[in-house]
Specification:
Blueprint (H helix, E strand, L loop, with lengths): L17 E5 L4 H11 L3 E6 L14 H6 L4 E4 L5 H11 L4 E5 L4 H4 L4 H7 L4 E6 L7 H4 L5 H7 L20 H24 L3 E6 H7 L2 H10 L19 E3 L5 E4 L4 H10 L21 H15 L3 H10 L4 E3 L3 H6 L1 H6 L2 E6 L4 E6 L23 H7 L4 H9 L6
Helix pairs in contact: 1-8, 7-9, 8-9
Length: 407
Amino acid sequence: MAMINSQKPEFGLLSGLRVIMIGLSVAAPFAGELYAEHGADVIWIENPKAVDSARVARKGGSWQQDRRNMRSLTMNYRSEKGREAFLRLIASTDVLIEASVGGSFARAGLSDETLWQANPGLIIAHISGFGQTGDPEYVKRASYDPIAQAFGCVMRMNGVEGLPSMPAMPFPGDYSAAFYAFGMSLAALYKRQQTGKGESVDVAQYEVMVRIQADYLTNGLNYGIQAPRMGIYGNSVCALPNVQICGDGNYVMTAIGGVSNFVKLEKLLGLEGDPDFAEPHAVINKSDGPRAEKIVEAMNKYCMARTAEQVNDEFNALKLPCSVIMTYEMMKKNSHYLARGTFTTWHDDNKDKDLMGVNCIPFFKNNPSQIFRGGPVYGADNEDILGELGYSEAEIADMYSKEVIKK
């Protein structure tokens, strides 16, 4: 049974806000989901002519997890009748999050200025591959997460030297863009409290990828240093790989740096007393000759004589940074995941079954998040939402007959 807005429980930090989300795949839905998990009324407007591919891709679990608590309105908002209803809905909305090729909304006659005529205080978050402004040839280009990684130079450093570059997975361009859209639209809401005026946020996926490159970017721009593909090392100079295979066929990730850590590691590996390691050192580089060769050989031998869990436990007992490279089955059984409640379950009304996925994070003491419904059935909330906007049953029936809305 569809849950109308009046039945929505009051909870979280963002209760009382209304958000419209329009977008496929990951970025816009996840930005909207962050609002929905914290109590906002999030209305997902879907295309009545084509079901969101996320509903069926990879068993459909992604859209369930990233569209929980949302309401579904399947409406052609670009048609004459749909546009009228859309602008009526905009008038009661705090935030619009949309993801499309740059300039799509303006070309459809729904520019920021048009939307602000309906609601001067509206916060608009545009997510696109290349932004709303710039070189017109780029602005109009289609993009997905790996395209943003490629154009933003992140992909250049991922993979193994000598082999083609690889995209980082899963979807850092999408999720990072979503966090930017969520955070900056909240900042705009804060400013609206002071001015009463709306704002338009232009999130370009490639720029998000450019922004999160730390000193690799500044070294490249200022000193001409192009970061090589890192492979299993995590950097271009250290002799000791970060990723190590263990005797049980599983892997660990280590991050060893600093004089005290190398003293502890070399004692653990049986290298204490070796003159090559007598001088204090915070790092061992590939160029360090016999010392580099010895520690790599000793580390390989040590790890292959133990399971990944044993290596992990022995390293962490010495406060050496280390983690098993987890599988999903390991995660489900891990004591820390269980103790924190990182995973939870909710009911999928589409398939009438319970699903397991990540909980609402981070956790709040005073205004906790909540999952009160799973991802909505296609068009489940059409009547409720349009009824809230003042449309009669006859008018809603007319919209169905003209395929402005659909179930």
